[in-house]
Structure formats: C-alpha cells, structure tokens
Amino acid sequence: MRVGVTQFDIAWExxxxxxxxxxxxxxxxxxxxxxxLVFPEMTLTGxxxxxxxxxxxxxLSPTLHFFKECSKQYDMAMMFGYVEEFGEEYYxxxxxxxxxxxxxxxxxxxxxxxxxxxxxxxxxxxxKTATFMDMVVSGFVCYDLRFPELFQAVSEQAQAIFVIxxxxxxxxxxxxxxxxARAIENQCYIVGVNRIGTxxxxxxxxxxxxxxxxxxxxxxxxxxxxxxxVELQAEVVASIRKQFPFKQDRKKELxxxxxx
Length: 260
Prior knowledge:
Elements: E1 2-6, H1 15-31, E2 36-38, H2 51-54, H3 62-73, E3 77-86, E4 89-98, E5 101-107, E6 129-132, E7 135-141, H4 148-154, E8 160-165, H5 172-186, E9 189-194, E10 197-199, E11 202-204, E12 209-211, E13 227-231, H6 234-243, H7 252-259
Parallel strand pairs: 1-2, 2-3, 7-8, 8-9
Antiparallel strand pairs: 1-13, 3-4, 4-5, 6-7, 9-12, 10-11
C-alpha cells in the first residue's frame, strides 16, 4: 500500500480555501500513485473550539461529501478529520473513505482537556478498524497518542495505525517519541500526520512521520515536502510478529485487575 503522508498548511477556519489546498495535494498524490492519502486533524478548519460555526451533521456534511467525491475522482482512499454535530453534541472525527464510501468512522476518545477541548467536544468510546487493500488499518486523533492502551487494543487486529493531529511545535519531541514507541510496542506501522503553519496563535512545523513495526523511521527527518510517500506491507507485520511474538505474553486480565 502506497500511503501519502501530508504536511498540510491549514487556513484557519476557512473550509473553501482548504479544499483548494487539499486538491493540490491530491493532484500530486495521484501522480505518485498513492493508494491512501492522509490529512491532519480537523482538515478543513484547524483545531478550533468554534463548534457552532464549524459543526456538520454527518448526513449533510459538506466536508464528508467533498472527500467522498474526491476519493472517486482521484481513485484513492482518503483519511481526514472534521467536526460532527449530533444534536447538541460535537465530535472530533477521523474518517476513512474510498470510492465514495465510508470505511471507518472514529470519534476521538480523549478530548484534549489541557486545551479545553473537553468543554466543547464529547469523547468517543470505541476503537475502529477497516480493511483496505488487504490490510487492516485503524485511526486515532492527536491527544489519543498519549494513551497506549488504545493502541494495544486495536493492534490485536490492525497492521497499520494512523494518528491525525494538530500537534504544536513546542511538543513535537513528544510526538516523535510517542509515535516511535507505539510502533515498537504494537509491532505495526504507525503513521503520524501533523499540520503545519499557524492557527489560533499556535505554530505547527513539518513533523509528519511514519515508522515500521520495528520502530525504524520510514520518512526522512526534517523533510519540508508537503507530501511524502511510504510503502506499507501486511506481510512485513506478520513476519516481525512471528519472529518475535512478544504480544502473546501480554497479561490483559491481570492489567485489567490492576486498574480496577
């Protein structure tokens, strides 16, 4: 699977402008024969608490419609984020679409309380997976990265886990360390896709990156390119897990008892 890892400069709360910018990346990804193109958290708005302005009902969502139509036009799957309005509640979403259809619909489980996200968004309660090109994939959103239990749970099935984010410059060292750790702990591909530019007074730098199941980095460090392409192979995950099957020694029931 050829995955396009974006470094997307999001125009703050400007969906129309961001659709234009996204299409530019889609055009480049098409030329590079990308199978799955991954965008950052809240792709067309930036990490905003302005839920009443930006929230969209799923059945009527212009953002979801845009990416579904683009997935057909460019013949590639796309992962992206947006704000869903459901009644009087709002959710920070990670979506995967292909050929105009939704393959994965995930609600961010951990709102970022440090940034008051929990005052505006409801946390989800389920991990999600999808099968694409014979590979089981999953997705999380930004702050979820700090909670390894989620990754252990979903990596029972998933061979590749994506994290879409708006992770600011001052904590990028944590971002890199945690992505690498999650790859090693779960013996799977981990792909972190972060935005660049500025939004709501915060600065974001080029820091999208991918790691293989041994924790080896697949993307080039300090790469300023808006699009990098990496190859993910299910057989690599299977081989590594067979050679060093430490996941089978996990004591899930004991861990649950230690918590409760």
